[in-house]
């Protein structure tokens, strides 16, 4: 008679590992949604690039007034 090895209540088995993996996936998706997703990242990148170049108002303020 072979005795079956008893697992504790917190032992990992394939089903629990799959559930943990699915939970991790949900957490990663939630973090991505909270941070705004890829569209928000693209807008941030474009705004960063636009901030490196002076605006028309800044160019006018830096040039001396030729018509005065």
Name a few traits of the molecule.
mainly alpha; 3 helices; single chain; 0% strand; rod-shaped; 68 residues
Structure description:
The protein is mainly α and 68 residues long. The protein has a domain at 14-48. Helix content is 63%, strand content 0%. It has helices at residues 14-34, 37-51, 56-62. The protein is rod-shaped and about 95 Å long. The model has no long low-confidence stretch (mean pLDDT 82).
Provide the residue-averaged pLDDT: 82
Tell me the number of helical segments per DSSP (H or I, 4 or more residues long). Answer: 3
The dominant shape is rod-shaped
Strand content: under 5%
User: H/E series, N to C?
Assistant: HHH
Number of strand elements: 0
End-to-end Cα distance: 107 Å
What ranges have pLDDT less than 50 throughout 5 or more consecutive residues? none
Largest sheet: none
> What's the Cα radius of gyration?
29 Å
- What class, by secondary structure content? mainly alpha
In percent, how helical is the residue content? 55-70%
Provide a compact summary of the structure.
It contains 3 helices and no strands. It has 68 residues and is mainly α. It has a domain at 14-48.
List the helices and strands and how they pair.
Elements: H1 14-34, H2 37-51, H3 56-62
């Amino acid at each position: 008679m072979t005795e079956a090895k008893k697992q504790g209540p917190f032992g990992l088995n394939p089903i629990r590992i799959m559930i943990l993996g699915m939970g991790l996936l949900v957490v990663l998706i939630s973090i991505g949604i909270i941070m705004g997703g890829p569209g928000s990242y693209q807008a941030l990148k474009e705004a960063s690039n636009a901030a490196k170049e002076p605006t028309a108002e800044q160019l006018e303020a830096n040039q001396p007034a030729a018509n005065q």
